C-alpha cells in the first residue's frame, strides 16, 4: 500500500482489534500540542510532506501508519495524524498510541523519505505495540499472555472495592479511613473504605483528573487535571480554596511536601513545577525533559524530586536551594524571575539523569529509607536504580509484565516492590532477590495507578472500572488460649504469655523454608496442654500444617530447635489429648492422626467442608459455605447444624455451653448443639471476640470494643485507636494482641453491661446494689430501662429534679412528678403536670396544679367538666372579688345562671346584650325593665325563629377522678419487696433513695372531709389586703399533713395507671435530631435553646421569641373533634403523602425556608441602595436571627447558609458604623474614621461604590486629601458610574500631593478588621476575640459580652458550630 507521494510500505501490523476511542467533551477530538498543531484532512490519502513535517516539528525522518481510511505521521519521538473522523497517534521506542472510531482491520507502516533505518526485523525486536496508555486510547484485542515462571496468580485480600469510571489518581488519608479517587470523568470521590460509603464528591474540574493527593496534617487535598488546573480543596468546608494556573498542558501528578508548604506537579508541557500553596505562587519550574512528564514526586526525607518522562529518562532533581526560599514575600519577588527559571535556575538542578528504558517512562518513585529508585515504563520493564552523593546507576531489571507498566512503588514496611500495568495485573516483586513473588489479575480492567497508606499495611489500585483497597498479607496473629496461658506466633517464634504475671517469653523458633509467595505465614494455632503440643497451619503449598512437641523445660529458651512434623491439609486442629484432625478437602474427609503424624483413621464429613474447628473432645465443627455442623468423629453422627453465612472464626465459652460464630459483618450466638439464639449485625468488620466470666461475649470491630448480652442486646464499651485481637477477658481487663504481635492489657468499665445482665437474669439484689453504689448514669441507661419495661428503675438513676420530673411524666408516674414539681416550683412544670394528670383523669392533681399556677380559666373549666357546681359558684364569687368581668361571665355561663349573666352584662354597660339574653331566656320582668332603660334603642329580635337556650351540658362524672386502669404489681416490684423483707434495717434508706417513702402526697379524702381548698383560697383572698383582689396562692396555709393531693389507689397493694401512650410525633422529631429548628417545631423550646447555646453560643433569645412561636404554630394544625372537647393538635410532617407508612415519621414542616432568605436579602439590598439604613439594618438582623432555625437538605446549601451569615454580618456591621457616624455632629475626625471603616466591609459592588464615594467626599471636605485620593483610586477600580468616576478624577486632580490635615486611626496599607462594638480597627497581629455565631471580631475587652452585631451570642464563648442540616450529623 502506498500513501501520498510515493510512500513505501515497510511493515504491516494485522490482527489488532482497535477499540473506538472515548472522545473528550461532546465527542470532540483531543489534540496534543507538539510545538505546532496538525492540519485536519478529509481525504485519507492526502498526506503531504509539509503536513508530516509540521507534525514532526522538523525533527528528522518521518513515519506514517495507514489503515482502512486512516493515515498517520510521526517522527522518531511522536507522531499524530488526524484524518476525517480518525485520529491515530503512535511512536516507536517511546509512546504507543492509536485512536480510532471505526474498527481497523490492519495497520501498515510506510516510510516517506528521508527514510530512517528501519526494517520488519527491527520492528519485531522493538515490539511495536498499539496498546493504549490513556483512557481515550485503544489497546489490543483480548490477548492471553503466558504466565511468568516463578510467580502465581493469587486471590487478593480485598478490603474495599468501588465501581465507577476509570480511576486515574489515588491518595490515602494519613489518619482517617479515607481514600481519594480521581476519575477520568472529572469527578473526585472521597470514600470511607472502612465503612464502604461515599463521603463526598468534588466535580469542578473540566475533563479527566489524573493526580490527587492528601496533605499530611492539614484538612486539604490537591488535584490536577486535563484542564491545565491545579486545585487545592478543603474537605471540611467541601469547597475549592484556590486554583493554581501555569501549566500549558495536561497535569499528570500532584503531591504535597510533608514539611514545607509545597506542591510538585508534572505536566505534558514537559515541565515540573513546584508551588507554594500558602502564597499561591509558583516558586520553581524544572525544565529538561523533552517529552511529557508523567510523574514527579518528592523524596520523603531529602531535598530531592524524581520525575519520569516519555523521553525515556528518569531524572532526580536537587531542590535544597528552595529550602531557603520559603517566605511568601520572596515568592512574590521571584515572580519577575520566572522567565529566567524557565531556561534554568539555580534553586532546582538536575542531579542525575537515569537512562536505560527503551520506551517512555510512566512512573518513578523513591524508596522511603534507602537510596533506591524504582521506575516502570512502556517497555514493560520495572527497573531498580541506586544512587549515592555523586552518581546513580541501574541495579537490575524486573521483567514479567506483558504491557506498559503504569505505576510502581516500594512497599513502606517490607522489602517488596509493587507494580501494575495495562496487562490487567498487579505484580509483587522481592526487592532483595529481585524476583516475582505474586500476581493479581483482573479479567477486563487495565490498571493505571497505585497508592500506599502512609501508616497501615494497605494498598489501593485504580483500574478501568473503579478501584480496590487491598492488603498483601494477613496481619491477624495465630494464637490459642489454654487456661492462664496464651500461645502465639511472632517473628517466626512460638511465644508463651502468662496472663496473671504478664510474662512473655520465647519457646521455640519456627523455621520455614523460604517461600516465593506472600501470605504464607501461620494462619491458625491449636494447642494440646497435656502433651504440650502445638499445631500450626498456614496456606503454604496450598495448605499445610506443622506439629511441634515442646518440652516443658524449654520455656524461655529461644535456641531450642526441632524438626517439625509436617503434612498437607487445609486446616488441622486437636480433637483429643494426643489426636488431631486434618481436613482433606479433595476427598471431603477428616484424617485423624497421632502425635507421630501417623494416620489413625479417616472419617467422611457430612457437609462440603472448607475448614474445621475444635468443638469438644472427639468433635469437630465443620464449616461449609452456607452452614456449620458439629460432627462426632467416634460415632460419625451430626450433633447439631445451623444455617448461617460464611463463618471466619469460632469462639467457645469456657464451659463449652455457648459458641460465637464470627462472620465478616455478623455474630451468631448458639448453644453447644448449634441451636440458634440470636444474630447481631455490624456495619463494619468484626475482628475478634472472647467470653467473659459472666457469659457476656466481648468482641472487637475495626474501631470499637463492644459487648453482646445473652438476650441479644449490645453496646459500645470503648473506642479503639488501633485494631486489636482479644485473647481473654478477665474482670475489667481485656487481654489482646495488636497487629504487631504485642500483648496489651486494656482496662474497661463493665458496669453498664453487668447492670443490664442483672436485669436480664432478674437478679434484683445486684440491681439495687449497683443503683446505690455505682455511678451509672446517662440517657442510654434510662432509655434502656424504659425499653425493657423498668421505667420506675430509671427514676432512681436521676438526681436532677427536672430530669426526674420529665421521666416521671413519660413513664406516667404522677406521684414522683408531683414531688419533683414541688421541688422545682416552676409555673411551666405545674402546667405540664396538670396536662399529664388530666390525661390520666386524676382531677385532684389537676386541680392542685391549676391552683399553683393561678390558672383560673382552666380551673373553672375543670369544675365544669367534673360537674362540681359548688366550687364553680365559688369561682364566680372570686371573679367578682377580682373584678374580672369575663371570668364572671364565663363562670355564670358554665353554671347556667341566666340571671347572673344578665346582671353582669347590665353592670358592664352592655344593655342591648342584657336585654336580648333576658328575652331569649324568658325573663320578662327583667326584659321590660331593660327595655324601659333603652327607650328607642331596644334591639329587634328576628321573627319566626325558635330561640335556643345556651345551657352547659351535664357532666359524665361528678366530683371525682376518672376510672383508671388497674395494673398488678410487676416482677421487679416483688423483687424490691424481697430485698426489703430480707434487710429491714435498710428499708428506710432504700425508700429515701428510691423516692417513695418520703413522698409528700395529700390524702384527698382527708382534704374533702376536713378542709375545702377553694374555701380556704376564698378566705385567703378575702383577708388579704390586695389592691387587685386576686389570689395569692404562694401564701396558702394548707394543713401540714395535706400539702398535695394523692393519686388514686393503694400504692402497696395495687397501682392505677393510664394505658401506655404511643410516642407523639413531636417527640419523634427530636428523638435523634440535633437541629434547633426541629426542636422548636416540636415545642421543645428548652432543648432548642440549649442546642443553640451549645452550637452557636447564643444566650439572648429575646429577638428569637416571635420566631419560635411562629415556627411552632406553623408546624401544627388543630382539629375540633367535638364541640365540648378541646382542639386536637396534629403535627404537620414535611412531604407527607397518603401512601406513606403510618410507622414512618418524616421531619417537621418548617415555615422558615432558606429560599425565603433570598427574598429577604434582596429586600435588604434594595433598602441599602435607597439609603434606608434603619430598614436595611432591620432586614439584615432579621436574616441573622432566622438562620439558626433554618433546616436545609444538602451540604451545598449548608455552605450557602454560612455564606449568607457572612454577608449579613458585613452589612450589619457597616450599617451600624454608618448610623453611628450620622449621630456624630461635631467631631469631624471621628466621622472620617467611621466613613473609612465602612469601606473595609465586604459589600456588593454597587454598595461599595456608594460607600467609597461617601468616604471620599467626607475626607476631602475634612482636609484629609491623601486619604480621599486613596478612596478615589479604590473607587475607580470598582467600575464606577460616569458621574462617580468624574468626581473621583476631580478629587485626584485637586488632592495632588497634598497631605492629610488630621491624623486618622486608619491605615489602608495594613490589613485590619473593625471591632463590632467599639468601631475601632484591629490590625493584623493584634489580639482579638470573635462571636461564635456571626464571626464578628472584637477587641479582647469585649469578651463575655453580648455580640453587638448579631445581638444573640456571647463574644468569645465556646461553640461547636452551626448545625442546620441532617447531612452534617451523618
Reconstruct the topology from this structure.
Elements: E1 8-14, H1 49-56, E2 62-66, E3 79-83, E4 86-90, E5 106-112, H2 120-125, E6 157-163, E7 167-172, E8 178-183, E9 188-192, E10 197-202, E11 209-214, E12 220-225, E13 229-234, E14 239-245, E15 251-256, E16 262-267, E17 271-276, E18 281-287, E19 293-298, E20 304-309, E21 313-318, H3 328-333, H4 338-342, E22 349-355, E23 361-366, E24 372-377, E25 381-387, E26 392-399, E27 405-410, E28 416-421, E29 425-430, E30 435-441, E31 447-452, E32 459-463, E33 466-471, E34 479-482, E35 485-490, E36 493-498, E37 503-509, E38 522-528, E39 533-538, E40 544-549, E41 565-568, E42 572-576, E43 579-584, E44 589-594, E45 599-604, E46 611-614, E47 619-623, E48 627-632, E49 637-643, E50 647-652, E51 658-663, E52 666-671, E53 676-681, E54 686-691, E55 697-701, E56 704-708, E57 714-719, E58 724-730, E59 733-738, E60 743-747, H5 751-760, H6 764-773, H7 779-787, H8 791-794, H9 801-811, H10 814-824, H11 827-840, H12 843-852, H13 856-866, H14 869-881, H15 885-895, H16 898-907, H17 911-920, H18 924-934, E61 965-967, H19 971-982, ...
Antiparallel strand pairs: 1-5, 2-5, 3-4, 6-33, 7-8, 8-9, 9-10, 11-12, 12-13, 13-14, 15-16, 16-17, 17-18, 19-20, 20-21, 21-22, 23-24, 24-25, 25-26, 27-28, 28-29, 29-30, 31-32, 32-33, 34-35, 35-36, 36-37, 38-39, 39-40, 40-41, 42-43, 43-44, 44-45, 46-47, 47-48, 48-49, 50-51, 51-52, 52-53, 54-55, ...
Helix pairs in contact: 5-6, 9-10, 10-11, 11-12, 12-13, 13-14, 13-15, 14-15, 14-22, 15-16, 16-17, 17-18, 27-28, 28-29, 29-30, 30-31, 31-32, 31-33, 32-33
